[in-house]
Amino acid sequence: MLPPGAEFDRLYEATYPRILRTLAAMLGDHAAAEDCTQDAYLKAFRSWHTWRQDAPVETWLHRIAINAAISYRRKRVLREVGEMVRRLGRPEQRDPTDHALGGDLLEELRRLPAKQAAAIVLRHLHGYSNREIAASLGVPESTVATRLMIAKRTLRARLRPAGPAISNTPVAWRVPPIE
After folding, report:
1. For 125-153, what is each residue's pLDDT tens digit?
2. Which structural domain range is residue 91 located in?
3. Whole-structure pTM over 0.85, yes or no?
4. What is the number of structural domains in the chain?
């Protein structure tokens, strides 16, 4: 059962900007985000019969779009790694301090595993609740909470400004010698 043309057109017009923003934030490449967005709408149109009418259609679309972006990122990483190995042999080890010093939130977001990045984008860019994110990604709420916790911890660690580390260990008090 395909959706009526006018109904799908309205859905497309109403949701396209949000879906595109989500994928652009995840992928960091506007052209790739547009391609994945179009792919997601095509998949949604073709699998309209699988949408449960009791579930929000935008949540269903986000799930399809995020899956398209995750697939795109996997393929891109495999292509990039394959190309690098082909050209250079083993890739160089990067100095982790290079990223910490130039740490940009979007760059670090894109370095997260795709599932963690999706949870962060849906929560902080779109304001979804854990329940809405869980429905969108097709996972339990506890999984969403775990992904958010790990992603936030990772981002904090990567974006923490370089400086002297402050120890939580109490400093031993010294009594000056009596002269």
Report:
1. 888 889 888 888 888 999 999 999 999 99
2. 5-95+102-159
3. no
4. 1
